[in-house]
Design brief:
Blueprint (H helix, E strand, L loop, with lengths): L2 H20 L10 E5 L2 E5 L10 H17 L4 H13 L10 E3 L2 E6 L8 E6 L7 E5 H5 L11 E2 L5 E6 L7 E7 L5 E9 L3 E3 L5 E7 L6 E8 L6 E5 L6 E5 L6 E7 L4 E7 L8 E4 L7 E5 L3 E6 L7 E6 L9 E4 L6 E7 L3 E8 L2 E8 L5 E4 L7 E4 L9 E7 L6 E6 L5 E6 L11 E9 L5 E9 L11 E4 L17 H4 L4 E5 L9 H5 L7 H16 L8 E6 L1 H12 L7 E5 L5 H5 L11 H4 L5 H10 L13 E6 L8 H13 L6 E6 L12 H16 L5
Helix pairs in contact: 1-2, 3-13, 7-8
Length: 702
């Protein structure tokens, strides 16, 4: 062991000891590492934390956890109370709305006290006896983490394939279960992505594997029951693309979709003859994005060919190249087409206009169209579980800040909506006690930005004394729609206003909104968030120091940038969950997961213009010797999306440079990945602790 490494080990050992004795924050060893690009040298003192095989790394993370446990100990009573509130609002023995697929109604249900779902079905009618497909509680017994999504049901409904991840790094092992006997086949497929689709022959399952280092979804295989070796169907060689498989409701094909941020390519496999090679639909072209749905004798293509906000085209099944596409829904400057659903008689478009979603229904026979919308000022609506091709019923989901998660069946002939199920919120929740509003403010460059707020009706809205919780994401074109949260009620009932600003980088106002918050315009995302916060102050809703911001993953990047850029004292606290904060170093390393596929989002720092711009906002690189607000940072040791060392390095550098005595904690979950705990109640424990953190900062002790 070198002298410097020995010193580091001794320092961490001392830190562990002192953290337990007197709640002194850990001091990570500084081991300078030079990073040079374009003649510029950056010195990264905490680069060594990237080496997960180094025992010093684990020691440091444990030291941070010990410190966090010690300093957060006074919050334990409040955290326990919040957890009990949150858990108490959840109906423990509850089921999802059953969806029709073939002769069965499928659903998932939770048993009282169970952390994990039970996947089940009923044949013919909802009054039929329940048949359990899979009890995830049994699979999770004795495991710190367990993720199992809804199984892939074979088209004859006699078998399922289900995928299990026990580590949180999104490597799934696939198992096969005979539904008639309840027996597991000896077949097993290891370390897949969990993305899979059945062919029609009763024996072939298509699935996707990822590269073990970069985690890029790059290969499609076919597993035939009883065969020892699986057949490679397709390899995606371009490091900027990932591949996935799906099956349309017609059941005629297996779709192989290769996609990057700004380009797409489909291949089709005949589901009745799965041994045949895939057939190219339309070759990839730069900046051509398209998605395909099967309409029987034709394909419907959602695409952006000369259409910034996307349009819908159609082509015969015998000629699928772009030259054969004919527009059926033209491009509109004010409306983004986000998704399409195709049924035997109906074409349904999920659209977005003025940051609100709705559905456009087109009769494929007569050409008549109609619209399915909702009346609240701010809401979230999406396609629900639609697995039937020959149907006149569309299932959609709906929620708002004051309306719990709801499932509707829509009669496509009349547009009539039938409420199938609404989430039951226990604990005395009454939606009429709360109000949600959509407001618009002018950002610093004059752009009008929407922000949704929700609050109890009995607060003095413009007293200037209300605490505010503000959350956003703002990347990849993902819209942060105003959702319902039963956990959030614990803040609202203590006088908080909760806000979601629809900042650039999402797609709330169309594709332009996304493009104005990425690449060399990324700072608009951060400015919009800060300006939204200042707007709430200017309207008298709150005041500086009483505003608490949270974001996760790329939203954690937002939190890191805001911590550096915001006026001093604006935020009373910041929560950064699994934050992407070491932008330049990560994007310069093609061996790190998710790097090469994201050059179109952040830019390629091998080009100087992008390097310089990223460096100007990268949270880790811009930590300064100045005061920072209290901060709560989380990560997972097995995180596959944002590697644990990014939050760890950031926390270490903040500790070394910040000039205040404000609390900073880093909590590393040693058993999980990007999504945190897998159980439905266990996941609430972290939320309860984070809420206790900001309530305590606000002086609210119960």
């Amino acid at each position: 062991m070198s002298r410097s490494n020995l010193a580091a080990v001794l320092l961490i050992a001392m830190t562990l000891s002192s953290a337990s004795r007197a709640a002194q924050p850990p001091a990570a060893p500084r081991i300078p590492h030079k990073l040079e690009k374009f003649g510029q040298v950056r010195v990264d003192d905490y680069y060594w934390l990237k080496d997960r095989a180094n025992p010093q790394v684990l020691a440091y993370l444990k030291a941070e956890n010990a410190y966090a446990d010690e300093v957060l100990k006074p919050l334990a009573p409040l955290s326990r109370k919040l957890f009990a509130e949150m858990k108490g609002r959840i109906k423990q023995d509850d089921s999802t709305a059953p969806f029709k697929y073939g002769p069965y109604y499928y659903y998932k249900t939770y048993r009282k006290g169970g952390e994990y779902p039970v996947y089940a079905r009923k044949k013919g009618s909802l009054s039929a006896p329940e048949e359990v497909l899979l009890d995830v509680n049994e699979l999770a017994r004795g495991k710190a983490f367990c993720q199992v999504d809804f199984p892939a049901v074979r088209p004859d409904h006699r078998m399922i394939a289900y995928a299990v991840d026990y580590g949180g790094r999104r490597f799934f092992d696939v198992y096969f279960k005979d539904l008639a006997t309840g027996k597991l086949y000896s077949d097993r497929v290891e370390r897949t992505t969990g993305n899979m689709a059945w062919a029609n022959d009763g024996a072939t399952l298509f699935y996707v594997k990822q590269d073990t280092e970069t985690l890029r979804w790059d290969r499609v295989f076919a597993h035939e029951l009883g065969r020892l070796r699986d057949r490679e169907v397709y390899y995606e060689a371009d490091p900027a693309f990932e591949v996935q498989v799906s099956r349309p409701n017609t059941g005629k094909y297996i779709f192989l979709r290769s996609g990057s941020t700004l380009s797409t390519e489909y291949r089709l496999v005949d589901a009745d003859r799965p041994a045949l090679p895939p057939v190219l639909f339309q070759a990839r072209l730069p900046k051509l994005e398209y998605d395909v749905e099967d309409g029987g004798d034709r394909f419907y293509v959602l695409n952006n060919d000369g259409a910034r906000n996307f349009k819908v085209s159609v082509c015969p099944s015998s000629a699928t190249a772009r030259t054969a596409w004919t527009d059926v829904v033209p491009h509109r400057d004010d409306t983004l087409v986000e998704d399409i659903g195709v049924f035997e008689r109906w074409l349904v478009l999920k659209e977005r206009k003025d940051a609100l979603g709705s559905f456009r229904v087109i009769d494929r026979v007569t050409g008549r169209d109609g619209r399915i919308g909702f009346d609240e000022q701010a809401y979230l609506t999406e396609f629900g579980d639609n697995y039937e091709y020959r149907t006149d019923t569309l299932r959609v989901t709906y929620e708002s800040p004051t309306t719990p998660d709801s499932v509707y069946d829509v009669d496509l002939r009349t547009g009539a909506k039938t409420l199938v199920k609404r989430q039951e919120v226990l604990g005395g929740f009454r939606p009429e006690d709360y109000r949600a509003e959509r407001l618009w403010f002018a950002a610093r460059d004059g752009e009008m930005v929407p922000v949704d707020i929700v609050y109890r009706k009995d607060i003095d809205l413009v007293s200037g004394r209300n605490p505010v919780y503000i959350y956003a994401y703002g990347s990849y074109g993902y819209s942060t729609d105003p959702y319902f949260s039963s956990a959030r009620l614990s803040l609202l009932d203590r006088g908080f206003i909760c806000a979601i600003p629809h900042i650039r980088g999402g797609s709330e106002l169309g594709r332009r909104w996304y493009e104005d918050g990425k690449l060399l315009k990324k700072k608009n995302t951060f400015y919009d968030f800060i300006d939204a916060t200042q707007y709430l102050v200017d309207r008298g809703y709150t005041s500086p120091g009483h505003i608490y911001a949270e974001g996760g993953s790329a939203g954690g990047l937002l939190m890191g940038a805001v911590a550096n850029m915001a006026p001093a004292g604006l935020y009373g606290g910041i929560i950064a969950d699994v934050p992407f904060v070491d932008v330049v170093t990560t994007m310069l390393d093609p061996d790190i997961p998710l790097t090469t596929g994201e050059y179109d989002e952040w830019g390629d720092p091998a080009e100087k213009a992008y390097y310089d711009y990223m460096l100007s906002y990268s949270p880790y690189d811009n930590v300064e010797r100045k005061p920072y607000p209290p901060m709560f940072i989380t990560t997972g040791l097995n995180d596959s999306q944002v590697q644990y060392w990014e939050p760890a390095k950031w926390a270490a550098k903040l500790r070394a440079l910040k000039t205040d005595r404000n609390l900073l904690v880093l909590k590393t979950d040693m058993d999980t990945g990007h999504g945190g705990k897998s159980g439905r109640f266990e996941a609430l424990r972290l939320t309860a602790l984070e809420y206790a953190f900001i309530l305590d900062l606000e002086g609210i002790k119960k």
